[in-house]
Here is the input.
Amino acid sequence: MNRINKKLQEDKKLLSIYFTAGYPKLEDTVPVLEELVKSGVDMIEIGLPFSDPLADGPTIQESSTTALKNGMTTAKLFDQIKDIRKTVDIPLIVMGYFNPMLQYGVEKFCKACSEIGIDGLIMPDLPLAEYEEHYKATFEKYDLKMVFLITPQTSDKRIKQIDTASDGFIYMVSSASTTGKTSGFSNVQRDYFERIDALNLKNPQIVGFGIKDEETFKAATKTAKGAIIGSAFIKMLTEKGIEGISSFIKSIRP
Amino acid sequence: MNYNVNEKGYYGDFGGAYIPEMLYPNVEELRQNYIKVMQEPDFQKEFKELLKEYVGRPTPLYYAKRFSEKYGTKVYLKREDLCHTGAHKVNNTIGQILMAKRLGKNRIIAETGAGQHGVATATVCALMGLECIVYMGAIDIKRQAPNVARMKMLGATVVSAESGSKTLKDATNEAIRDWINNPTDTHYIIGSVVGPHPYPDMVARFQSVISEEVKKQLLEKEGRENPDYVVACVGGGSNAAGIFYHYLDKPEVGIIAVEAAGKGIHSGESAATSALGKEGIIHGSKTLLMQTDDGQITEPYSISAGLDYPGVGPMHAHLFRSGRGEFISVTDADAMQAGLDLCKLEGIIPAIESSHALAIFEDRKFRKDDVVVVNLSGRGDKDLNTYIEYFDLA
Here is the structure.
């Protein structure tokens, strides 16, 4: 069984962390990963930096720009994490934009992920229709779970389509925003969380965008299976470095 | 072969809508409605009236006698430079602002490079009394100060794009991010035939008025609707899409797209996408774009801010790959000289973008009785500083 599916069966609220590979320093990718595992997170999204990350706010953009300046590439990332399964057992997801994957070669990219032991991919700009028509077969061949996003504006009909196409979890974007934008949750978000919960989808949902502390983590996971922290983690990493990881994770889930 | 967009939003291998889910409802709403709205008699009436009374259409199709004599062929100039606001861009912003109103949007966002599309957007927002926010790269804000002032006078808010390389591609990213953050009340007026489907097709349709007029005007002047060639510069490619549109399926009409070679195709400072680009995804569209081997989008260069874009609209990528279009690239130096030549020969100061199209006649020879229509997409007022510095005219 794919590690993602297995993890989702655990009887607890999951904490997933996004970080940008090659940030703050090029060779920080593996140390950050290992420290996150030590701190007890349930899942990790490894961000493959892109020059033009449309869905991201300033924090992740800047970390991507820095990582690219540091010399991060797709090939470099795969090389850095080639032995990661010797030390890391939790689900690992690569999150990036579609163009670098396209240039690397979709099949070659999937094969490399599979050989390393990556469990899933999040490609925000690879839409459902394109995925199903052109890439689904390849992803499945390598047992990579494609994770789709939904937002408060996504219609129930489309959410059900996405639920049918998914096998793992649905990435539930908490509000109409780029990453790192929101501050706390309002009633609008709570209504949205409850609306999705009431749909009784076959895939659990993990909430992302706007999670930054214990309070927002709790609010997001009241109905959802877990939550993803990205920008707030990158900010902490910028300020405190790898030494800050363990106390940051403790502050989210004491 | 079909050179227009298909049902799935593709031109051959190119196009589509590679957008984050956050944009899906907006783009889908537009996709479902744009053709229906454009075909409404009421929409057509308002659009045509504004093009006539406000923009000043039809623009002349001018026989450039002395320019023709110099190059030994018959050259007509489609005078888009005489449009209100100084370029063809306003054809599209008029169309899109009417579209936005019919979709019930009250907040308009746009990206701009040199500021021409920003000015054209600010203009129609003033005309319709809608809020207007224009994203512009921090570097472009510095080098295009007069257009920044124009936009402000017209009531627009100009927001500096501080990310990435701080130019047009980053301004486009910022506009897209704004749209993600404002998904219900906002319409994004893209300025070229780029972006996710249906934008390339919608913008091409609004700009197609250019070739629609050329057909009528040429019939009067030459007794035939079809020239032997149509020529236009291509950055994203909206003026080119406009003048090619009604000739795409007429094989007897040669289509010539002129890209900016900058300081030379292999100089490392160029914007000649067809020569340097590879298939990839930029701003929601699969097309040809300039990028590293690793798929990171690279920064183009041209002396002309309007051609300074690392991609090209999917329609043009298809024209290139299918061989339907002839692609020529022109250096800064040749374009600047061609611009100055037109001033002296015809008394017309062209935009530097348009000067690229004029520059091909030095090397690309035409027969004596060929009828060649060049889209003179904009006027050179905005480029005076560049002309002054380049030719030391002060």
